[in-house]
Structure prediction request, 137 residues.
Amino acid sequence: MKISTEREDFSERLQQALRNAGYPADSPTLMAREFNVRFAGHAITVHAARKWLVGEAIPTQEKLRTIAQWLGVGAEWLRFGGIDAGDAAVPGSAGDLHSRFNSADIKLIADLQRLDEHNRQLAREIIRMLVRINRQK
Prediction:
């Protein structure tokens, strides 16, 4: 019985963190998509996201850390509760970045990090050039 309550409590905190970050708390499709662009491991299914949202399962610690960083809350709070979600925000983490970057931007950054150093430097130079051109308009 304790496990069921633990899962349900996690689900409530997850839904609260999603709402606080400006996401709907009832869309496993959106949650799976947003999670997958941030997670370096195997992608999750919509079914897995649904299980997290309805309190049928709790993600692994690695996935939990990704969710917490994405939503700008502490991983410990998300998993176990305790202090308020607002107090558990991680300064400088994805919670702050959410308002500045959409999922396509985050995927682009992840792709950039997968490049070797030479190609990463080339990509930075191209972006700087595009910014200079854009400023001249």
In short: Residues 2-100 form a domain with the 434 Repressor (Amino-terminal Domain) fold (CATH 1.10.260). Residues 117-136 form the longest helix (20 residues). The radius of gyration is 17 Å.
